[in-house]
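stage 2 :: seqdesign
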């Protein structure tokens, strides 16, 4: 799911990656909206809010929206930096560090209200910064691992691509082309569905657990790491026994 790159990467790897991490993004997105009233999985809206606050001459809020954008960018930058650096030493495990950082962030914010008063005026802004950083981290990781096939933190581009591919079904007649289209459409529908599912589950969970809802994406990320490791060991042993035979 994470380890395979280039020709060794299959449709199944991308499908598993998309399913788990788009659900994570959906959970984080709804938690950010309900807890701190901020969209934390993309920066498109923040550009509009930034412009609006400049127009209203509310320069403090304009600066905060600019920082939201920059924190997402910083997350993507750090993720890319880590993956490039780690790939020089162990290309098969370069994804572990970004995923681990994201998991720690989710757990830390989940328990943040225990240690820091939510009434503090800076609390929601700091939480927004950190969640945007985490989603930038995840989006860059997924983009690198899947070679830009999968994106899990925002849906605008996905709906655009989905619309284009649905229209192509009326014109592509060859079996090979139709099979490729069907697989691509299904992948995008899976990302969208899992993002929505994460949002719905997160919404109901937030009613009872508030920011501790972020422990759910942390569990999903840990499961993804565990599953990938187990699968790698299975295929390693399978190849080893086949070689002995």
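stage 2 :: out
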């Amino acid at each position: 799911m994470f380890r395979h790159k280039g020709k060794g990467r299959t449709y199944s790897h991308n499908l598993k990656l998309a399913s788990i991490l788009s659900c994570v993004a959906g959970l984080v997105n709804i938690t950010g909206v309900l807890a701190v009233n901020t969209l934390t999985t993309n920066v498109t809206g923040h550009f509009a809010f930034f412009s609006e606050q400049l127009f209203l001459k509310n320069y403090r809020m304009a600066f905060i929206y600019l920082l939201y954008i920059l924190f997402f960018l910083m997350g993507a930058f750090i993720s890319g930096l880590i993956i490039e650096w780690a790939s020089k030493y162990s290309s098969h495990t370069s994804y572990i560090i970004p995923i681990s950082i994201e998991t720690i962030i989710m757990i830390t914010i989940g328990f943040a209200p225990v240690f820091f008063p939510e009434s503090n005026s800076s609390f929601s802004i700091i939480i927004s910064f950190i969640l945007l950083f985490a989603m930038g981290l995840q989006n860059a990781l997924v983009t690198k691992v899947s070679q830009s096939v999968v994106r899990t933190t925002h849906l605008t581009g996905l709906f655009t691509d989905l619309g284009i591919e649905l229209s192509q079904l009326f014109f592509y007649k060859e079996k090979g082309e139709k099979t490729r289209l069907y697989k691509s459409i299904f992948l995008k529908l899976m990302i969208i569905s899992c993002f929505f599912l994460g949002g719905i589950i997160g919404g109901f969970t937030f009613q009872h657990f508030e920011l501790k809802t972020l422990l759910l994406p942390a569990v999903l990320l840990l499961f993804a790491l565990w599953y990938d490791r187990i699968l790698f060991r299975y295929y390693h042993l399978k190849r080893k026994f086949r070689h002995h035979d």
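stage 3 :: structure notes
- The radius of gyration is 20 Å.
- Residues 86 and 206 are 36 Å apart (CA to CA).
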